[in-house]
Amino acid sequence: MEIDLGEMLTPKRISWGIGLIIAAIGAWTSFYTIQAESQGVVLRFGKYVETVDPGLHFKLPFGIDHVEPLLVKRTLKQEFGFSTEGASNESQTSNPPEQEDERSMITGDLLTAVVEWVVQYRISDPELFLFKVQNPEDTLRDLSEAVMRTVVGDRTVDEVITFGRQEIEDQALEELKALTADYKLGIQIDQIQLKNVNPPPSVQASFREVDSAKQEKIRMENVAEGQLNKEIPKAQGVADQSIETAKGYLAKRINEAKGDVAKFEAVFKEY
Fold this sequence. Notes:
It is a single chain. The chain is α+β, with helices and mostly antiparallel strands. It is 54% helix and 21% strand. Strands 6, 7, 8 and 9 form a four-stranded antiparallel β-sheet that branches. A three-stranded antiparallel β-sheet has the order 3-2-5, with no helix packed on it. Strands 1-4 form a two-stranded antiparallel sheet. A hairpin with a 5-residue loop joins β7 and β8. It contains eight helices and nine strands.
């Protein structure tokens, strides 16, 4: 038995078929899911409509609504002067030539230092993050580098490399927070952490010698202080012993003198 396609593919059936296909596509594109660590920014013909929380949601089909998911509850990071494998976002690291420029800095005493650091941040306002500034994470990298160069440039190389690290982190954090708020990046800065901070490779040997000499000085001072603390109690003990001996001799002489006086008085009385 032959099938007549002409009889089966009538205009009515074709219309029904097209309608079912369109309905299926419409149903398929009407729902979306936002994952647990994210929020979704709903765009209608490219214009912002709303921000939705995690879960299953409905949207207008056929590309009328577009949803941009953003990881708002995950801590992101940007690395400066170095890179680690497995970057979680495109702006996490820069290319090697840029890394060399990022970590080379001038200190306040016109010396150079190699500074590597990490910025940890979160997307705090999805609408601002997507629409206020073009490429907000690239802007964040520029701001972070500018802030770090300013903070390092206000300190000596000894402060940068040794005892001033915590102060540098704190000041850079406050200044970067203020700038991201001024630029309305929709980003919350959580932490700035200095990683490797060293003198330039060409002078690292000299810096190590200086640092070794400082450590030796501190060691000798501690040894001297320990010896001093040992000798002072010893000398105090000898002095206390001499005082007690002198007191005993004094008491003995006084008693002997009293005995002589008593003896003399007895003889005098007999006389």
